[in-house]
Structure formats: structure tokens, C-alpha cells
Fold this protein.
Amino acid sequence: SLCKSVCHCCCLEERFAYLNWRGIDLAGELDALEGNLPQEVEVRGFVRGLHAIMARFGDGHASVASQSTRRPSRFPPFLVEYTGEGYVAVRPDRSGFLDEERPYILAMDGIGIEDWMETLREQVVDGSEQLVRARSMRGLRDLELLREQRGLEESDEVLCRLSSDPSGADSTDVVVGMTGSRPIYGSWPRLGTGILGGNIGYLRIERMSSELATDIHRSMNGFRDTAGLVVDVRGNGGGSRAPLIALA
């Protein structure tokens, strides 16, 4: 069968460390996917189905892609971030909010932000609440594709509902043009290792690279007389264990 051939070719049964972690029946999932395929298989839908299966295993690095997958050509001119109370629309260069007076974004095209993120849910790795939210927020940049999934018309504009408060008490709708440049989250926060106010050591580990081990030893030696220590791994996508061993 097509699905089982994919599984065999990718060597998942021999090489995928997450295969048995959650008791997911991979063969059964592939059979179910194949059973729902139409007579003529649309590649993009097939890839989306395979990716949704891989996302369930909880491996943040696993994905399924194809050259036949459509890539968006237009993007919202902002990034979405979470404050703990609601979502804000931030300029791509992080110089400020999309609207300084109304930083919170409640909806796009009349659909709530949480509702858009639910559209992305099956394509996002089944990890922690924070990981799911972060990956979903990044996926909002592909609004052009999300519109297609929901059967909405294409548009060069996006209608944003903005508010000064996450409750939306004074919300207003603002139309902004889509852009041809994909906004980039990049490394954040852009703060290097050092000593913060109050004599607090701040160790920034933005990536798991073996080259960082020496820097970690040096930094920790410099923190011996500090009153406390913050270890910041936000945005760290994983990698080598060397930084963890050095820190331990």
C-alpha cells in the first residue's frame, strides 16, 4: 500500500525514537489515512495527512514536506506573540506594535485568533501547551494557506480586530495590506549572557551547540558571587547535549 511504503522507505520502524513513546499504532493510523484517500490523490492533502500523524508522536523536529506543497506568497505584516493574557500583533522588526494604542489582536478576517490556531492544531506537534501555542502562532503567518483550508477567498488584505485590552472592550477593525516578505521571528530575546540588576546572573542558551560548552563554563565561573541565576532557553530548538552536561 502507498502509506505503508512511505513508512518503510522512511525507516520509521527502525530509526524513529518516538515510535512507541505514546502507544500510537502507526500502521493503524496509516491504514486509516489510506482508507480516506480519494481515487485520485491530491498531493498536498496527502502530505498534510502524513504530517498530522507524525505530529501526534510529540517529536518537535519531525515533519513531512513535499515539493508539491504550496507555499504562500503573501503574509500578514506582523508577528503574533502571547502575553499571558492575550495575543498582540508586533511589527516584524519588533520596533513596536502594529497599533500602539491597540496592541491586542482578537481576530483576523472576522475569525478569532484562537479559532485560527485550532485550524493549525493537527499540523502542530503534540507537545506542551507552550510549544503548541508557539508553533501555532508561527503558523498564523501562513494565513494565505489557512484561508484555503477554510474555504475562504484569497485577498491582498487582512481585516484585523484590534483592542487596547485582551477583553476587547474597545475593539476596532483595521484593514492592513498583505506583504510579499515573510516576517521572521528570529532569535528572541536578543539579550546576551551577563549580570542583570540586583546582581543576578543571566545565562542565555539560545541553541544546543557543543561549541557553547566552553562559554558556559566561563560564564558560570563569573556567576559565583551573584545572588541568583536565570537560565534562559527560550526559542532553543534543541541539538547537542554538550551544553546541558557543561551546565550540570
Observations:
- The chain is about 30% helix and 15% strand.
- Strands lie at 79-82, 87-90, 104-108, 111-112, 157-163, 172-177, 194-196, 200-204, 228-232.
- The two ends are 48 Å apart (CA to CA).
- The mean pLDDT is 90.
